Amino acid sequence: MSTSLIDETTPSRQRGVSSTRHRFDLTLSENPFPPLPSVLRAVNTTLAQANRYPEFLPTRLPTLIAQHLGVQQEQVVVGSGATGVAMQIMQSLTTPGAGLVCASPTFDGYPIMAEMAGLEVVPVPLDAIGNQDLVSMAMAIDKRTGLVVVCRPHNPTGTVLPASALKAFLCEVPARVPVILDEAYVEFVGAADQLDIFALLNRHPNLLVLRTFSKAYGLAGLRIGYAFGRREVITRVRRLQLPFGVSSAASAAVAASYAAEPELAARIMHITTEREALRAALRRCGITAPPSQANFLFLPGPGVATALRRAGIAAKAYPDGSARISVGDPDADRAVLQALTSLR
Predict the structure, then answer these.
(1) First to last CA, the chain
(2) Which of 31, 182, 270, 335 would you call most buried, defined as having the most Cβ atoms within 10 angstroms of its Cβ?
(3) In sequence order, what DSSP letters do the residues of 4-32 get, joined into one string?
(4) Which helix (H) or strand (E) holds 290?
(5) How far is CA 4 from CA 187, 259, 265, 335, in A?
(6) What local confidence, expressed as pLDDT, does residue 22 receive?
(7) pLDDT at 344
(8) 51: exposed, middle or buried (C-beta count within 10 Å: 0-12, 13-18, 19+)?
(9) Residue 340: what pLDDT?
């Protein structure tokens, strides 16, 4: 094998590189690249006016996002990352004691936020290949269900549900039950697997699509997330909009990111190419990761998380010894491969 999985484009160092304990921190599925230069310039310009408050209630950012999506501004709600918007959804559309149906494992934030909102998590195990079991999830919905969450791609496996399966599932969910379609990693999904999201929204008034600028856009530290859906549902969520809760830097960063989409697309291509190269190399070593359409790989255990930790690589670990790792930094990917080569 060559010294590099692919031609190197130097990303920023992961947070853990400067740590005395970890050479690489791959726990949070972060983008390994810093914001684009044009985005940094736009953000720095706003910092010169950091003595001024941002908008009391955000209008510029929802308008920017709505124009980009091709929807009305009233159909978009923004917040502090996708987690902040998800929390607004839970607090505005559910009542304490209701059930939240989701896959298990899933994004760690959902059980935490459910507890904060007084919801009872109803976990549904993944199927044998790491997909969300939509048939079992539909069966888990009952009169106490207040919210359903479906991730596409799924976190932590990176798998993508077929569009036909998702359509069938949404038809099974009662219209009174809101459904979050978590598309935090949608920019990494191949063209053949992209959804006709507007057709789904037209058919299912209870559907909310949740997205973030933390992953593909590399703006995790600015905390910019949003959801869009039917106007009447989004209006209810907006009632919990935190005054002064969206910074001027966020609006500037989004506008600059939209203007730099060709450069962002090149970065996404780098990350996905590196991901597939690492997955193929691991498979040759006997470690089979599920096909991922995100910026991470799920590495089945046992022993994977321990081997990475011993090599000074921080990963998201699971009780059975499996791990999820961010991808895209050639140095980190080579370190992962070296750490796991002797495991099988």
Answers:
(1) 18
(2) 182
(3) SSS-----PPPGGGGSSS-SEEESS---S
(4) none
(5) 25, 31, 21, 11
(6) 66
(7) 64
(8) exposed
(9) 93
What global pTM score does this model have?
0.92
Instruction: State the pLDDT at residue 128.
Output: 87
CA of 219: how far to CAs of 185, 233, 294, in Å? 13, 27, 16
* Token reading at 38: 């044009």
**Whole-number pLDDT of residue 301:** 81
What pLDDT, on the 0 to 100 scale, is given for residue 238?
96
Query: Collapsing DSSP states into helix, strand and coil, what is residue 142?
Result: coil
Task: List Cβ neighbours of 189 (8 Å cut-off, separation of 6 or more).
Answer: 152, 153, 160, 293
The domains of the chain, with CATH numbers, are 15-36+262-340 (3.90.1150.10), 38-259 (3.40.640.10)
- pLDDT < 70 positions in the chain: 1-22, 344
Q: What local confidence, expressed as pLDDT, does residue 232 receive?
A: 96
